[in-house]
Amino acid sequence: MADPREVVLRRIRAALADSPPVPPVVRDYEVARDVGDVLDLFAERVADYRAVVRRVRVEALPVEIEASLRARGARRLVAPVDLPGWWRGGEVVWSLDGPAHPLSVRALDRADGVLTGCAVAIAETGTIVLDAGPAQGRRALTLLPDYHLCVVRADQIVGTVPEAIARLDPVRPLTFVSGPSATSDIELDRVEGVHGPRNLEVLIAH
């Protein structure tokens, strides 16, 4: 019996055999523009999404992270196994997630929150992009806990979406985060926490 998938693909190839060649796509759109101070704009746009955002000094990160967790009463945190060790501290029980010992869905769901870094951030849209790279972990890590504390370095913030895309590897699993998870699909009523954490806090480290 013929493979149904191959039959369909063969028919598509046959139907397209006489088609004219596809002209090259002209990508002459604007790739960068002056948006002013990217740190200020990013902080403003993140706050517009009802997320908490604070600018902190890099050397003060452990203290600021602990302050954020204490303010939320978060004491059971999950984090990717390659998160910088000096970020972790305080009276917190840390569970580390990695390829060798992935945390269960139950463990992620029961955690008070997750701490990660990011791949890049976009000032114009107030968006954080995760690509499962260093200090970010797998996608489930930032979707199941109800609180996401994300550290964004100042040098990771760019002005526009095209600038961010230029920094990213398109074959990696990309997640674009613009504020806490929310939807208004049903009768335009805003519901938070449907597709991810209801609470997002961003520390801009400069």
Automatic annotation (TrEMBL):
<dbReference type="InterPro" id="IPR024185">
    <property type="entry name" value="FTHF_cligase-like_sf"/>
</dbReference>
<dbReference type="Pfam" id="PF02589">
    <property type="entry name" value="LUD_dom"/>
</dbReference>
<dbReference type="InterPro" id="IPR037171">
    <property type="entry name" value="NagB/RpiA_transferase-like"/>
</dbReference>
<protein>
    <submittedName>
        <fullName>Lactate utilization protein C</fullName>
    </submittedName>
</protein>
<dbReference type="InterPro" id="IPR003741">
    <property type="entry name" value="LUD_dom"/>
</dbReference>
<feature type="domain" description="LUD">
    <location>
        <begin position="108"/>
        <end position="204"/>
    </location>
</feature>
